[in-house]
Fold this protein.
Amino acid sequence: MLTSCANIRIGLLLGCVLLTRIATAGAQPVAPVPPEYVVQMQSPGQLAPMEFSPDGRRLAYMVRLRRQVTKADADFVRNGVPWFAVACDILVTDTVDSGTTNVTGGSGDNWSPSWSPDGRLLAFLSNRDGSGKAKLWIWDARAGGIRKASEFQVRRAGAERIEWSRDGRRVYIAVTGDPGRSESKIEGGELVGMVSEEDNEQANGPSVLVYEAGREESRKGEMDRSDTTDLDRTLGRVVSVDVRSGDSEVVVPYGRIGAFHLSQDGDSLAYSSPRRQQMAGAQQVLYDLTVVRVSAEKATRVVSEVSLRHADAFSLSPNGLLLAYRSEGASPPGRNIFVAGAAGGELRGLCATGQEPDGETSVAFDSFGKMRNPSSSIPLWDKSGETLYWISEGDLWRGSLLHSTCQKVASIPDHLMEEVLSSSEGLIFAQTGGKSVVVVTRNASSGSDGFYKIDVTTGESARLLERGECYTSRCFTLLEGHVAAVSEFGKRIAYIAQDAERWPEIWTADAEFHFPARLTHLNQALDDYRMGKSELIDWLDEDGVQLHGSLILPSGYRKGVRYPLVVAVYGGLPLSDSLNQFGGYFASEGYLNAQLLATRGMAVLFPDAPQHVGTPMRDLAKTVLPGVNKVIEIGIADPDRLGVMGHSYGGYSTLSLIVQTGRFKAAVETNGIANLVSFYGEMARDGTAFGNLSEKGQPRMGGSPWEFRDRYIENSPLFYLDAVHTPLLIIHGAKDTAVAPFLADELFVGLRRLGKVVTYAKYEGEGHQANGYRNQLDIANRMIAWFEKYLKGDQARPVP
């Protein structure tokens, strides 16, 4: 009876929430959302985990509350501040009374909050001291003060972790070389000093950079290659810092460090070291995994040159004696879960869970199948350290070290499991005495994410929450393994929720998700606007393969009226997975948020676009254009008012379409590629050649231009610009280090020479993404104006 009453109360509560949403939606006017509201949208940190205080009452997280200033990609490398932390503050919210403290108070760039074991201190990274360098800071939750804990500059990389010792006296962070010592890197087996452009300009000698290749002397253990990525960006050390005195000890000496984790007992630290790229022209990196026994000051390289999905895709057992990881493209096929002793010893392949692509056929960006059939890359331990859990092909698996057994634990009908919740780094979140776990799922029919409880003894599943939202890294909220924050005793869960109409917000719930409640209330100005709804559509491509697309309807959509349609493309990825992402796939570049178009009377389609080696350009036409036809057939799109847009490889995809068809009346491409031959030859200042990935990576050429000359030409839109009849807006950052600006120059020069309608906007100081607020706003306004000029016409047209 008590359970029934509780269910009634829950039903009434959810009903009230639903009615409130309906009433609010009805009161919202159909009006264009101002670009500045979207561009400066406040959002929870995209790539840094939230964290509960040990008592489970307070939640620490990062939010971008201020306008960004322009910072090129190189600045992030030099200063140690990742792009996602710019203009962010650290906030702490009391989950009981909802009181919120802005810990950093709008000063500096701040990220990676981490509570001490007693919950009194909060460590975080920031450049708030005015030096422009990222350092370790401490906030005292009781006294309320902030102080700098160390003068070490944080190592120049991405989402750096802060690990606390068990006694709360020391923290572990990755830092650059010795203070005052110039950075250096390994190049061709020799130590070469690194200097800045400013240093070169002020030097008395010649300002020259010398690059060498094809040395006659052998380089043992190295293959002849041209790297697409500078792995030396990960150079640094791991140190432990005494939070009281600031004294430090070196735990991992200077070298490449991808990511590190501390064991539950605090005495083992495991880290990955990027060694080399798997093969020439590929983006897959091979890593060494090493374990340091802190008390014994002993380091053991556990495994060499293993293929990991990302740098932190490994976990330590609670006692720190075992290391587990999942190998991408493991041999023999399928034995891809590995366990090794932290002090060395035999490497065991724990379980065969299905065929994995081998090194010759794997493509880093060809994740179409993986996203359709997700596999978690981090095996999670139970408290005993005797059992591992992971997800493979959308199912939950378990491996027992004691019995050397492996079995599928559970499947959920019409659902794919995506991630298993963890209570702490590498440890699974278990309930009911270890008999159940919580997983994040995707509904294969509706595309909606959900939280489900799995009984690991019976395999039975129970839905906890599923209501047309996105919670996972598919919507670019958090890194894998950090979908939700779980309090120490598992009583509360925090997660980020969003859908096509609602921007990301942090929600909290009890362990059973009985009473989910919105914790943050960001961007209240957006509440006044009715956004476009999304729906999932499907079609058959030219080969008869069923594909899907996420279609965002114009706000205030009326059935029986045809609207302009903008197709947002990115070859090789299933963009329909962005169905419940606010603003669609390109929303991480706020100036390309699809709601800027939907609230102005345009529909936006995000189509699936699988590609094959050697035919990416043709594949785009074969997959995307039938999707456009479907939106026309169902009476939504006006066939005479079609547009297309895309960023980066999506820019290449956009250009590939407009050289093959004249159906599009307007196109916008940002930081894209028109010439794969020129892209192959671009070189960054550090000597890396990102365009070499055309061989085995994203553009899918299958080899070098000398092996497949015709293939490179046939798949380069530049050689077909005479066929363009679509007005094109080109947008590019003048300091783009991924797609060099000269590639946009040659595109514009070619179109101008041919007398085509084209506008080229190059943004000084910007990299592959625009970061400056004024530039972001300018891009948004240019995009809107371009599509309104060529697509909108006077009014929506009735379906004939």
Observations:
- The two ends are 58 Å apart (CA to CA).
- The domain at 529-792 is CATH 3.40.50.1820 (Rossmann fold).
